[in-house]
Amino acid sequence: MSDLLPETWTHTGFAQRLHFGAGAVGELPDIAKSLGVRRALLVTTARGGQSDDGLRIVKLLGRTVASTFAEARSHVPTTTVQAAVQQARRDAVDGVVSFGGGSCADLGKAVSFFVEQEAGTPGASYADRPALRHIAIPTTYSGAELTPFFGMTDERTRTKGGGGGPTTAPIAVVYDPLLTWSTPARVSA
User: Fold this and answer.
1) 113 or 15, which is more confident?
2) Fewer CB within 10 Å of terminal CB in the chain, N or C?
3) Exposed (0-12), middle (13-18) or buried (19+): which is 163, by Cβ within 10 Å?
4) pLDDT number for residue 184
5) CA distance 91 to 148
6) What is the dihedral of CA 94, 98, 103, 109, to 10 degrees?
7) More confident residue, 189 or 69
8) What domains are defined for the chain?
């Protein structure tokens, strides 16, 4: 073996299930059920919520979608996080489904994080069960759906911050390449 490449390597990841393939979004009802998600908050953008794919996700999940928060925006403004957390609390959700790009995934993680903090049950390790089970359905290539951290922006002070923890990463990620076809070319390139 070359001195440049190790013979073996180890990757320790978060407790996540990755579902990949054309049409994988069709597995969503079974994924939600297997995770015990009975009342989900769907987090997306206004465009994502009105898209054919967004409407299909709502139809697939049926009564599992307790409500939709279709106000996700780039850079995840703190006011947006606060509104989404209030909606999650109001609707007594037990899961989050984020559909869209990195800002949607980050918003879903922020909702999970703050609901967990409010409940007084922050996860101490990656083996702990999150307060809200988060299923991410990415439509871009940000990678945000795989990390336990989120970013957000205080528009008043123009500063970025964020948070995260062991149980903040989505517990399941659905990679369906067919959902990326509607992503604008400038985002995909």
Assistant:
1) 113
2) C
3) middle
4) 72
5) 24
6) 30
7) 69
8) 19-180 (3.40.50.1970)
How does pLDDT run across 126-166, given as a tens digit for each residue?
A: 666 788 999 999 999 899 999 999 999 999 999 999 999 88
User: Which helix (H) or strand (E) segment is 105 a member of?
Assistant: helix 102-119
Using an 8 Å Cβ cutoff, are 171 and 16 in contact? yes
Could you tell me the two tokens for 113?
């994080």
Q: Are 72 and 137 in contact (CB under 8 A)?
A: no
3-state class of 95 per DSSP? strand
Predicted pLDDT of residue 131: 84
Q: Under 8 Å CB-to-CB from 117, ≥6 apart: which residues?
A: none
Give 85: exposed, middle or buried? Use CB within 10 Å, 0-12, 13-18, 19+: buried
What phi, psi does 19 have (nearest 5°)? -115, 120
* Per-residue confidence (pLDDT) for residue 174, from 0 to 100: 95
Q: How far apart are CA 182 and CA 155, in angstroms?
A: 29
pTM of the model as a whole = 0.89
The structure tokens listed for 16 are 């996540």
